Amino acid sequence: MIIVFVTEEPGVIKDEFPSGAFVPKCPSISLDQRIDCFPDAGASKMKCEQRGCCWSPLDERNVPWCFFSTNQGYTVEHLEHPNPFVINVQLKRMAAPSLFGADIEQLTFHAEMQTKNRLRFKIFDAKNRRFEVPHVHIRTVSSNPSSPITNTLDIAHNPFGLTVRRKENRRALFDTTIGPLVFADQYLQLSAKLPSHNIFGLGEHVHTRYRHDTNWRTWPIFTRDTQPNGRANNLYGHHPFFLCLEDESGKSFGVFLLNSNAMEVTLQPAPAVTYRTIGGIFDFYIFFGDTPEQVVQEYLELIGRPVIPPYWSMGFQLSRWNYGNLSEVKRVVERNRAVGLPYDIQYTDIDYMEHMKDFTYDPVRFKELPEFAEYLHEKGQKYILILVRSASLVGGAPYESYDRGMEKNVWVTKSDGRTPIVGRVWPGETVFPDFTSETCIDWWVDEYERFYREIKHDALWIDMNEVSNFLKGSTTGCEDNKLNYPPYTPKILNELLYSMTLCMDAKQEWGDNYDVHSLYGYSMVLATEKALQHVFGPNRTMMLTRSSFPGVGKYSGHWLGDNTATWNDIKWAIHGMLEFGLFGIPYIGADICGFFGDSSEELCRRWMQVGAFYPFSRNHNAMNFKPQDPAAFGADSVLVKTSKHYLRIRYTLLPYLYTLFYKAHTTGETVVRPVLHEFYSDRATWDVDLQFLWGKHLLITPVLDPGVDTIRVYIPDAVWYDYETMERLTDRRKHVDMYLPADKLGLHIRGGAVLPTQRPEVTTTHSRSNPMGLVIALDDNNQAAGELFWDDGDSRVSATSQGVLTMQVTKAGYKDPNNLKFENITVLGVPHPPTSVSVTHVNTGSHLGVLFLHGLSLTLGETYLVRWDMEDEELQRFNCHPEENADEAKCKSRGCIWKVRMVYMFKWVPVPLSTPDAPETDENKRLYKVLISNKPFGIQVIRRSTGTKIWDSSVPGFTFSDMFIQVSTRLPSKFIYGFGETEHPTFKHDLNYHTWGMFSKDQPPGYKMNCYGVHPFYMGLEDTADAHGVLLLNSNAMDVTFQPTPALTFRTVGGILDFYMVLGPTPEMVVQEYTALIGRPVLPAYWSLGFQLCRYGYANDSEIKSLYKDMRAAGIPYDVQYADIDYMERQLDFVLDSEFAGLPAVVDSMRNEGMRFIFILDPAISGNETRYPAFERGQAADVFIKWPKHLKDDIVWGKVWPDLPNVDVDENLDWDTQVEIYRAYTAFPNFFRTQTATWWQKEIQDFYNNIMKFDGLWIDMNEPASFVHGTVGGKCLGDPLLENPPYMPPLESKHLGLNHKTLCMNSEQILNNGRKVRHYDVHNLYGWSHTKPSFDALLSVTGKRGVVVTRSTYPSSGKWAGHWLGDNFSRWDQLVKSIIGICRFREVEGYLPNARWYDYHTAKDVGVRGEMISLPTPLSHINLHVRGGYILPQQKPENTTYYR
């Protein structure tokens, strides 16, 4: 019994269950799947059972002893789809005890597919509004859905759960059915099973490894001023976002919970994640990506892409807390200038203030501070000062900023909403600005402007904004209420919400501090951004914040807080930088050499080396510790020398770093990047977290341990060049020992990079006037590419193996006042010296280029051609004549055109193939090499092991136009097999100028007749006995011509040329590799391997029943009985004819005796019925193929089998007349669409449940076949060239057009992604698109494997179905052609390969091998032979496989 009291909070369950009234259903699950039901302390058997949970103690404490039962959570009361992209669900809490009281009884679940890669779902109180984060950027982000939400989200009803799936492969990514939803007023919990342990992110904490440990680790998230020390403490920022790499494919997803309340996240080894938060709502965003980088880009599109900081902020920076006075600051500046240290920015911390009060400066110790910025500017340096969110002094000396704030009521208040809450920070007793208030923001802007007029500076550092308070809550403590003392407190530091901050019942404009505490830094950043814009106007500046929240990176950078001078901290900083790259704050770094503690020379030296490659590179330390600016260690110290060396490299590469920030700002790419983001297919990189990348191309390998000069590092799978020696590494994809003495760190450029450089100076002010350069590192293919962003313009460069580099300006919106020049271009990886070099200044784009040059003077913003000539042993001259006896005149007489430039149009084939995520980069591992010829253009593919050219298209005739594409290739031999579906008289092709058309059609097999399927794949044998296969992925009408050269010509009337080659080297391996590409064949049900019976023309169910009895009586093995369209009422799908009213009972009887039953379905659906649910529901779901709307908003009607209702067909009339008079109009489903698959499954389900059981499906007429040409009336709308293209392949009845016996080619189909395509381009895919929905429906409806048999096929149809060879004839030649063999009856000539063979029937060794022999052909059996050396499993036969 549940006792519910009516209170002032409707919908909240107030009371507990009476003792013993609830019985938990405890699941039998593995330990790693237990969801903790007692996250607080003090668990016991009694307390656990009082919560309705399951108690099972263990001998280890990590695993929950008290875990949830399966009868807790919520159930679905109502579910609706207001549109294809949205799901709304009403939830009701299940009757169960409460964990912490005040459970909310009725919830609303709202989910929407916002874009193809972003899903949002919210769970909230159905009755009462709760706090939601007022994120200023997210609310501006628009939605653009293209994929139905059902492709991505499944809902479980009892108990409620959701499963987020990857739509491409239905992999479960975020499955909450692992545990119940808990939603109380101050305790929300949700768990989800994840697909892998590769979890990155969540913050802000110190994570001792970048990849999370999933062994029951709990991470609290709640902004807090505390020292990062390696414990699992909550730190300055609040970032409930993680990225999960699914596997080696790179497929990844991200999860973001938009909630600012105190929370904790537990990771467990299932793997699974559990969120516990104590307020707000669940507002989740799921991001889908093909790579980790794409996930980050999707996330940043939502929360706001990062700011691009000013160029000077990329320079090195010096700071410390408590220089003491301005004279000491200047001494530090001067000594570091004196040693020639590259150094752009000097800071002052709170010691510059008068009594540490914001908007003041000490008039004694920092008397000359108003002139300090100018002092720095004279040498090209910048000045940054700190503000600590105006912790305003109460009482004492006059303080105008405080007084003006009091007048305007800008402070955070106590719970009464009026009295400012008072705490204690640096100045003493302080009040706290409420940055969520517009009045406060105006005050802050005004105070900042006043201060800037007095103290000039260049940027702002804001601190202590977690919000930090040295007291617990306030000077008067905190009241005893549910906000300050909630029923559950996450495992935050000190386990007290108001520790080191304000009381939770304090008030801000946005709400209670309980809800908005973690937004304090975020709101301060927004206010400060407004102040900076007001003061600096059009000039870019910089902001640095300690506390952060998702979206802060749009305005500010961040440093990793008050670290310590230890070897652990230098390591942990790398993990922190990588994580803040995920969080969208790429301007990130740690205090170099450590904030607290005295840094040793060795530690500081190694830290200066790696710190030179922090995006935000600042040396900062605390008061009372030794100075650690580089010059403090001595002008001749190794530390100064190595610091200068690597800072000069940093400044040399600042154009590259600046470009990375531009890419981050415009696309969301990471700047500092984990190695796994680029090499995710290599599992070894998943744990590489003490090396990192700048972008794609620069690998930084620091020394992070004391007393070592050789470290174990990983070299990812690419070409790498040592930056300093320019030598190419010989190792790749392996761990190596790298020698890095005291003054060195590892720095390597990835092959394929073009890095823009600039001659360095001691400040960016001066370096930006220096000449620029390029470092080009060639990859395995002798190619490289890169970008340069320079203020308002960028420059793209690329290098290729022909010795070309194009400096092509793609956007020249900025003219540099320094008239910058590119002076040096360095190309790494060139095997031989060039024979000549030339430089040309050109005005337009060019495909010519460069090598390695000094002394150039190429102006930034201009377009150049730099060219060198080299000999390349792999390039060969190709014969530009065609095959034998061919010449140019003959070629032109054929009407052929030579085109060098390909114009690619959208007509790709939407058939997914299983291809590697990245090409094999090691050329030595490839079985082939590829060469390109220019005159004529052609491609050669050469087998490395033998030198055989398996493809050579460098022959005349290559043509690429809108409706005619042709390419020819020489073949390595005359042994070619494949292409279809067409009747071939022999398995091996005859190459004597035979042409075979391919276009799916309802056409019985016949010589050179294009039939039901399209398979543009062939296997070729080579003279060396190797084999290869070639697939042309093109779905337009086409033909192939063989000629005795040997050569082959492909012609197609649309799409593109998209070839795939597999290299065997054996024929069987070719087939295996080909099916690996297109998809392995479905494993059919065992019973489907038995004998099967069918006919078109059963008169009634009695005939089938009698047939079955006769077969059984004769003892003939027989497993499957079919029913053709005879069983249908007037050939209507899903409708049983009265003559077959007893068929369901017959089928049930047969199935009870071990038989299986398969029935036929055609795709065409009658539209002329008064009441025909299949059509009505299909029309309502908009599943039928239509005309393009600009032509006619109607279905493209055809006619197939269904007759009109209430007519008697006069079968004495000719066929065409019968079709015209008696056949119904039919509509053709568009099976590309998810909604069609849903409709199709629903109709099959209803038939199975309500009419007749079955075990398999037979789908026919899906070429698609129609009995009229194009449409009813024969007039196809739109472009007539689509029906009769300029070139018509040699198809059956080609003179009647492509629409003969099928649909109009201008019919419009819609792909699953919403893209509209012409039937002209996807006609051959109709049967393919029909197959998977039928397969999915069969599995869903029957719950068993079953079998689908389809007539029309395309590459990969075998993943879901089998096929029969169509409507053949009862002739001997058809028997012959069914096995592609030549038989004589009475005797047959057969070849026995070179092996031992045994006669299956007599078990005798035949005694012949490697010869043709004559074999007898008695009527009693067929010749069967077993190869020696093999064991064939067998089983005693029965009349059906059911008895196996």
TrEMBL record:
Domain of life: Eukaryota
GO CC aspect terms: apical plasma membrane
Keyword Membrane: yes
Subcellular location: Endomembrane system
Keywords attached to this entry: Disulfide bond, Glycoprotein, Glycosidase, Hydrolase, Membrane, Signal
Record EC number: 3.2.1.20
A biological-process GO annotation: carbohydrate metabolic process
Residues annotated as domain P-type: 24-70
Catalytic activity, reaction form: Hydrolysis of terminal, non-reducing (1->4)-linked alpha-D-glucose residues with release of alpha-D-glucose
GO molecular function, one term: alpha-1,4-glucosidase activity
Cited CDD domains: GH31_MGAM_SI_GAA (cd06602), GH31_N (cd14752), Trefoil (cd00111)
Signal keyword on record: yes
SUPFAM superfamilies named among the record's database cross-references: (Trans)glycosidases, Galactose mutarotase-like, Glycosyl hydrolase domain, Trefoil
Coiled-coil boundaries: none
Protein family membership: Belongs to the glycosyl hydrolase 31 family.
PANTHER family: ALPHA-GLUCOSIDASE, P-TYPE DOMAIN-CONTAINING PROTEIN
Protein name: alpha-glucosidase
Annotated source species: Nothobranchius furzeri (Turquoise killifish)
Lineage, highest ranks first: Eukaryota, Metazoa, Chordata, Craniata, Vertebrata
